[in-house]
User: Fold this.
Amino acid sequence: MKNIVIIGGSKGIGNAILMQQLETNLVYNISRNAPDISHPNLKHFSLDVLQDILPDIENIDTLIYCPGSINLKPIGSLNIDDFRKDFEINVIGAVKTIQKYLPVLRKGINPSIVLFSTVAVKLGMPFHASIATAKAGIEGLVKSLGAELATVVRINAIAPTITETSLSAGILRNERMKENMIERHPMKGYLKPEEVAHMADFLISENAKSISGQIFEMDYGIVTFKM
Ligand SMILES: NC(=O)c1ccc[n+]([C@@H]2O[C@H](COP(=O)([O-])OP(=O)(O)OC[C@H]3O[C@@H](n4cnc5c(N)ncnc54)[C@H](OP(=O)(O)O)[C@@H]3O)[C@@H](O)[C@H]2O)c1
Assistant:
């Protein structure tokens, strides 16, 4: 049984990860709202990861940081505060969490960290300047810490394309927008949170013990193929 800390397991991709891990592992969730489930293997802390002091946790094998943002505006409409806020929740929150739990994580079994990037780092898309900048920071963090911690803790990131969660609800708000989104992807689809959770499950497993410092695109072909 692994000890898994999820930051952001109340909804979205983090919640899908939490639901998949609960049956076989001990899950510590940290988010402002509680997940909509109680389970003997779940311990929840209601906290704002940026504002509050993170709780001490005695044993940790896996750390997964999910909070992020989708703040799409032309550069002229993005103010400096937009960039700061996106950087805070995507990067600083992850750094704060890693710094807090690394000493415990180092002592874990096959210890690993999973962070989240986005396809918009590799694929230039209009109006993504702020989020792409922040997530590029995540990719740099993964590379750098992967090297620094190579013998002790593995760290990887998943870079999903659009995934059906509350974060993307505005972009997938009606059937026509959903159909357009499917059409835009060469492999004709977009992600469900459970698909992303399966990738996280692999990355934290013993089967991924050779893998660190890497970014995994889950892209339905949008970054990989030009049709
Ligand atoms: N959805 C997409 O289309 C998409 C695409 C590419 C990349 N991503 C990335 O994938 C990751 C997960 O996205 P998602 O769609 O699952 O997001 P989501 O549905 O918004 O879920 C984010 C989770 O983080 C928690 N959270 C947010 N701010 C927090 C804070 N200040 N303190 C503590 N917890 C906080 C939320 O819980 P509370 O609200 O209860 O605090 C929630 O559990 C993000 O990093 C996102 O950038 C998503």
Notes: Residues 80-105 form the longest helix (26 residues). The two ends are 44 Å apart (CA to CA). The domain at 3-218 is CATH 3.40.50.720 (Rossmann fold). The mean pLDDT is 98.
